[in-house]
Amino acid sequence: MKRNLGLLLTVFMALLSYSVAARANNSVAPGAFEQLKTLVGEWDGSNSAGRVTLTYTLVSGESALMERLKSANEPEMITMYTMDGDHILITHYCSAGNQPQMKTETMNGKADKYTFSLLRVNGLKSPAEGHMVGLVLTLSDKDHLTQEWTYEDKGKTLAEKFLFQRKPEKAATVVPAKN
């Protein structure tokens, strides 16, 4: 009986140590993710094709930031931002029908620039099919941001820059959740 109790205690302590270590590893990037949470709200912007609207909403118990991007002549696209250890991970649900996943390098706290690089793409019909391969998100200040998307199609790389300004709170329809 004592042997079983000792074994149980040893297993419990090992699991507790693992849990504490896992939490410590996940605590490296919270400042960076907390900074992204400040984007919640509505944004007006433009790119080479014209007017673009952007909405950020916290979802899933504030563990994910959902971005809804709508260009004038394009279907809406969704990008989900989440923490992944000491990185920020995104999945972009593209109007082209594929889902690129990208992540940052190691994040050590708040940042004003997030550079995402391609990990993999789901939903491609062929490797040459057009898909996003990179994103640079720059937070100029609390009311201005820039997105620079990089796209590959049939071996050619294209870039598109979006400039956004936060809508005044009175004009916005999305209000940050307060728990």
Instruction: Estimate the helix proportion, in percent.
Output: 10-25%
Number of domains: 1
CA radius of gyration is 20 Å
Taken in chain order, the helices and strands follow as: HHEEEEEEEEEE
Note the total helix count: 2
User: What is the strand arrangement across the widest sheet?
Assistant: 1-2-3-4-5-6-7-8-9-10
* CATH class descriptor: Mainly Beta
CATH topology: Lipocalin
CATH superfamily: Calycin beta-barrel core domain
Count of individual beta strands: 10
Average pLDDT metric: 84
CATH architecture: Beta Barrel
- Structural class, by secondary structure, is alpha+beta
Question: What is the overall silhouette?
Answer: globular
**First-residue to last-residue Cα separation:** 47 Å
Strand content: over 45%
Poorly predicted segments: 11-28
The major sheet is characterized as:
10 strands, antiparallel, barrel
Your description of this structure?
This protein is of the alpha+beta class and 179 residues long. The protein has one domain (29-166): Beta Barrel (Lipocalin), CATH 2.40.128. The chain is 18% helix and 49% strand. The chain has two helices and ten strands. It has helices at 2-26, 30-37; strands at 41-47, 50-59, 64-71, 77-84, 87-93, 99-103, 113-122, 131-141, 144-153, 156-166. A ten-stranded antiparallel barrel has the order 1-2-3-4-5-6-7-8-9-10. The chain is globular. The relative contact order is 0.16.
